Fold:
Amino acid sequence: MKKSTIFIFISLLFSSICFAEGQLNLKGNVGGYDIEMIIDSSDYNTGDFTGKYRYLSQKNYLNIEGTNYGNVLYIVEFYNEKQTGTFILDVSSEGIAGWWTNDEKAFKVELFVGEGDESLLDRKSDEDFSEECNGDISGTYEVNYYYINDYFATEDSPYYELGYNGGTSSFELLDDDTLKFSIDLVCGPTFHLASAEGVAVKDGDVYKYSEVLWDEEGDACEITFKFSEKGVYATSNGNFACGFGARAYMDHNLIKVKEFESDE
Structure:
């Protein structure tokens, strides 16, 4: 009996260690119903992960595919390869919370980390990419902020989606006084676009781009880029003057995430 007891104990201990090293278990509830979610693989560079989850009242698991956007988890669930719902979850020091939603309804979600490998929810950040870059101005710069967008949600139509505010810019220093640029920004929560490209000219400690648009007002668009160590502050004098339209603007700090690559 003693040998059998010891063997069972060692077997359970070994199983627990294997689970902890290769999986992460999350526990919580969806709309008040208890669930468990298991993450079993992830990609540190992209934030993508896979796994499964089930309601504790059910035996069968649903497959999940998700992406960790740093402060938000976006997870799609599948049953027999058919998408049946989506999780959009805020990640904070207080826990993981948000919504489960489909085309018809939405339920509140609360999760907490159980046992296992918490590194499966790690991902490479913009700051990590920036550390690999040199201090030259030329390169690709980004700012990325994700959130749960409830702008279009109402009591009758609880519509929640993955929100985004940020964008990307590329710079090529032509000489000491001129800078070729292209910049595209998304302004949440309505997702209006602010885009521009051209050649900016150095003016003191900044680079400025100016263009007179042929509209009724004849306003001049002015975009300013102020660089710091592996960073740039991009701002414009107005949305309509630069042809961005309503709710779109440039007032962003971006960080360098990639070295310049010539198209030639």
User: Anything to note?
Assistant: The longest strand covers residues 161-173. The chain has two domains: 2-121, 126-259. The longest helix spans residues 2-22. Confidence is low (pLDDT under 50) at residues 1-20.
